[in-house]
Amino acid sequence: MSGWRDNGGVCLEVADDGDGLAPQDIAVLFQPGVRGDNADDQKDTGMGLALARSMIEAQGGSLAAGCAPGRGCRFRVWLPGSADSGPSPGPDPGEAVQQP
């Protein structure tokens, strides 16, 4: 995993050296309900990447993948931000936090 500032935002990248994906699989990778051929024994819905992309795009960002058969995959998230933005301050530790 790596990260850097890029074009007024931040870019995060995760890469692996697994089996990768064929080009036709990358084309549908972010569609809801799509599961890889190797997911037969797993109890998932194929919604993870579709939801991740949707949430990232709702924030003005992007999620992309690059994969090559036999060479692994690389996922890149870009989120907008500014150089002077930082984490939001949390509540004062002495202040009561309202519970819903």
Secondary structure tally: strands: 4
Number of helices: 2
Q: Sum up the overall morphology in one term.
A: globular
Structural class by helix and strand composition: alpha+beta
Q: Any low-confidence stretches, pLDDT <50, length ≥5?
A: 86-100
Architecture, according to CATH? 2-Layer Sandwich
Number of domains: 1
> How are the strands ordered across the major sheet?
1-2-4-3
Ends apart, CA distance between termini: 36 Å
What's the CATH class, please? Alpha Beta
Q: What is the CATH third-level topology name? A: Heat Shock Protein 90
Main sheet record: 4 strands, antiparallel
**Which homologous superfamily in CATH is the superfamily?**
Histidine kinase-like ATPase, C-terminal domain
Q: How large is the radius of gyration? A: 18 Å
Q: What is the averaged pLDDT score?
A: 78
Quote the beta fraction.
25-35%
Q: Assign a percent range to the helix content.
A: 10-25%
SSE topology string: EEHHEE
Keywords: Kinase, Transferase, Two-component regulatory system
Protein name: histidine kinase
Domain Histidine kinase: 1-83
EC number: 2.7.13.3
